[in-house]
Design brief:
The structure is a single chain. It contains nine helices and five strands. The chain has a five-stranded parallel β-sheet, with helices on both faces. Helix 1 crosses helix 8, helix 4 packs parallel to helix 5 and helix 6 packs across helix 7. The longest helix has 19 residues. It is globular and about 55 Å long. The chain binds adenosine-5'-triphosphate, (3R,4S,5R)-3,4,5-trihydroxycyclohex-1-ENE-1-carboxylic acid and magnesium ion (MG). (3R,4S,5R)-3,4,5-trihydroxycyclohex-1-ENE-1-carboxylic acid binds next to loops. GO terms for molecular function: ATP binding; magnesium ion binding; shikimate kinase activity. Monomer. Pathway: Metabolic intermediate biosynthesis; chorismate biosynthesis; chorismate from D-erythrose 4-phosphate and phosphoenolpyruvate: step 5/7.
């Protein structure tokens, strides 16, 4: 069993927005590794970061992603930092991995309204987001098989393009 698509990308790229829409378009179930961690621990991501620290969160995340990759056959969105973990990068090999890319301006704008992202909660979210993109874009590209620029596209437009790319050809269903 293998996910139809795994979605990666920075905070605000739309993983949690596009993921469920893509799953609906493909007629499969949606799953999100952040939601799995919250369900399993009964705690918010912010609380885990604040009380246990990022390394403890990354360990929980690696385990949650490994489990979901092994047992989920729909669309799976990963937490924004999940591909930073080497074991997760190794497990993503061979999967269909969609990198939702977002530029600095749109990323800051989309994440600015929420205080639920512990890594962006500092005094200068723009500088923090720039550093995050500089460090992570190469990592997302390393694991991705498809890259989509999201800045000037609505979630519906992104899903329409992806659903066409990921649709199973009729002859493969027979
Ligand atoms: N293509 C888009 N165009 C405009 N707004 C978008 C687009 N995609 C997502 N958004 C908006 O950006 C915000 C962040 O989106 P979302 O929560 O899906 O990001 P995420 O990638 O899951 O972030 P995180 O890594 O923090 O979980 C939401 O308010 C969402 O409505
Ligand atoms: O970009 C990140 O490192 C994170 C993104 C979120 O999805 C959460 O997994 C958490 O807030 C960390
Ligand atoms: Mg999300």
């Amino acid at each position: 069993m293998s996910p139809r698509a795994v979605i990666v990308g920075p905070p605000g790229s739309g993983k949690s927005t596009v993921g469920p829409l893509l799953a609906a378009a493909l007629g499969v179930v949606f799953r999100d590794s952040d939601d799995d961690i919250v369900a399993r621990t009964g705690r918010s991501i912010s609380d885990i970061f604040a009380e246990d620290g990022e390394p403890a969160f990354r360990a929980l995340e690696e385990e949650a992603v490994a489990t979901a990759l092994a047992e989920h056959d729909g669309v799976l969105s990963l937490g924004g930092g999940a591909p930073l973990t080497p074991g997760t990068r190794a497990r993503l090999a061979g999967h269909t991995v969609v990198f939702l890319n977002v530029g600095l301006a749109a990323g800051v704008q989309r994440t600015g309204l929420s205080s639920a992202r512990p890594l962006l909660a500092g005094v200068n979210p723009r500088a923090t987001f720039k550093k995050l993109l500089d460090e992570r874009v190469p990592v997302y590209r390393e694991v991705a098989t498809v890259e989509v620029a999201t800045d000037d596209r609505t979630p519906a437009e992104i899903v329409a393009g992806l659903a066409a790319q990921l649709a199973v050809p009729a002859e493969a269903k027979e």
